[in-house]
């Protein structure tokens, strides 16, 4: 009999920390009887299975379970005395204002907390030596913000001294800190939670995963991704129109994806007009018998036009050890030495010219347009659910955790687990299979493996 391969974490690693017993009756007024027309509280021992698929003849070991998110019947904080704080970090992402608005409204209208603060410009706002003073956030301050891109609190990258940030939380009498950001932000939130625990301070830290790349570990979707794919498809369709408008027209679109090609892959499937999709997880050659350039020549000879989509993380092969980095230490794939888009454009142009192939190459980089647009309908709904579940967790005294989602169910996941890795496109999985079927591209590499 076969057995399921070991998981990359242990059940005890999924235990969510709490500040202490939750003894305060929730003010939400939900049902305590399953089956009532009124929504139910989520029991604190409710769990969500990690693995919901098996095969005949495969033996299961002990199941791995996530704590289920949702409103609790008893909470930790006295709402009329509680102060919450919100901070947005990293880069722009569709839906930031939606999350902020839903959090503020849930905290004020449903839990009736004493006050909500917004720290300005990411973790910089928690450092009084550089940050602006926090701003009070009430329902009137967030009335229309969901209709606009960006974040009304502003964002920034880069590390700050953890003890200094915790000093700020203590001085401002913050009970719950909600951090909205990607992997770097979540690592910072975990460090803040650890320092709080060392001091024995009753402050909860709850993360909301924000990465347009959709690459947070153990989270099946992050907000902004659906909007990004929608806008990216528009750029791809424009590149396709440009390519069709010229003999041997080639449209090249560079999309975001620092270490993961989820946007490039999903937009390729959504558009159905892409002929070659390049992502960091799937090896490819540019030159050689199986490389992109040869395959592109063949495509032009047969159809007289082509569209190439490339994820920015493919520029890792270009970046040297001295490549420019942002304040968080990540390679800046928009820098001259690591930008795969212009490099690929120039390489395709010179290669076709050297082969005597008359062609017109057009290049589109919609990255900043994608990052800055308002959330679409799907992301707006998702942002609201994330925000409300984060508030439920924080008010219940859950800490050092992030609100995730798996199999469509919202969960609580320890920050230490989420911040320890990144989700990536599986070259042997269904997403990449769909890409290759949509494009018709073969393997663009002469070696073995993926």
Question: How would you describe what is shown here?
Answer:
The chain has two domains: 8-54 and 63-222 and 375-418, Rossmann fold, CATH 3.40.50.450; 225-368, Rossmann fold (3-Layer(aba) Sandwich). It is 31% helix and 17% strand. It is built from eleven helices and 19 strands. The strands form five sheets. It has a nine-stranded mixed β-sheet with strand order 4-6-19-18-12-11-8-9-10, with helices on both faces. Strands 14-15-13-16 form a four-stranded parallel β-sheet, sandwiched between helices. Helix 1 packs across helix 9 (377-395), helix 2 (162-171) packs across helix 3 (183-199) and helix 5 (262-271) packs across helix 11. The longest helix is centred in the middle third of the chain and has 20 residues, at 225-244. 49% of the residues are buried. Residues 1-5 have low confidence and may be disordered.
């Amino acid at each position: 009999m076969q057995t399921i391969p070991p998981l990359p974490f242990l059940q005890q690693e999924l235990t969510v920390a709490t500040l202490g017993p939750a003894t305060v009756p929730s003010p939400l007024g939900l049902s305590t009887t399953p089956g009532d027309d009124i929504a139910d509280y989520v029991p604190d021992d409710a769990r969500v299975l990690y693995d919901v698929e098996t095969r005949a003849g495969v033996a299961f070991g002990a199941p791995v379970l996530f704590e289920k998110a949702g409103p609790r019947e008893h909470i930790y904080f006295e709402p009329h005395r509680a102060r919450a704080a919100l901070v947005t970090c990293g880069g722009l992402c569709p839906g930031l204002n939606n999350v902020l608005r839903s959090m503020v409204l849930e905290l004020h209208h449903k839990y009736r907390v004493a006050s909500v603060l917004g720290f300005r410009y990411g973790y910089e706002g928690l450092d009084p030596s550089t940050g602006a003073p926090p701003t009070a956030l009430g329902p009137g301050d967030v009335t229309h913000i969901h209709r606009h891109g960006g974040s009304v609190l502003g964002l920034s990258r880069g590390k700050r001294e953890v003890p200094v940030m915790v000093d700020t939380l203590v001085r401002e009498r913050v009970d719950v800190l909600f951090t909205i950001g990607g992997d770097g932000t979540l690592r910072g939130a975990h460090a803040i939670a650890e320092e709080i625990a060392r001091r024995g301070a009753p402050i909860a830290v709850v993360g909301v995963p924000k990465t347009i790349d959709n690459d947070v570990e153990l989270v099946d979707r992050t907000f902004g991704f659906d909007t990004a794919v929608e806008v990216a498809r528009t750029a791809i369709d424009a590149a396709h129109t440009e390519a069709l408008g010229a003999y041997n027209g080639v449209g090249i679109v560079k999309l975001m994806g620092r270490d993961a090609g989820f946007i490039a892959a999903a937009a390729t499937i959504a558009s159905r007009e892409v002929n070659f999709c390049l992502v960091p997880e799937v090896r490819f050659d540019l030159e050689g018998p199986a490389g992109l350039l040869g395959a592109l020549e063949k495509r032009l000879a047969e159809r007289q036009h082509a569209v190439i989509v490339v994820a920015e993380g493919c520029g890792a092969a270009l970046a040297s050890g001295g490549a420019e980095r942002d304040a968080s230490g990540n390679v800046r794939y928009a820098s001259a030495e690591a930008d795969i888009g212009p490099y690929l454009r120039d390489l395709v142009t010179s290669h076709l010219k050297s082969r005597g192939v008359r062609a017109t190459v057009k290049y589109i980089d919609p990255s900043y347009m994608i990052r800055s647009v308002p959330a679409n309908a799907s992301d707006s709904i998702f942002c609201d659910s994330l925000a409300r579940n984060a508030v439920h967790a924080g008010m219940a005294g859950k800490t050092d955790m992030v609100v995730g989602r798996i199999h469509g169910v919202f969960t609580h996941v320890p920050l230490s687990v989420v911040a320890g890795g990144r989700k990536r496109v599986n070259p042997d999985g269904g997403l990449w299979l769909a890409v290759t079927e949509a494009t018709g591209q073969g393997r663009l590499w002469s070696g073995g493996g993926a």
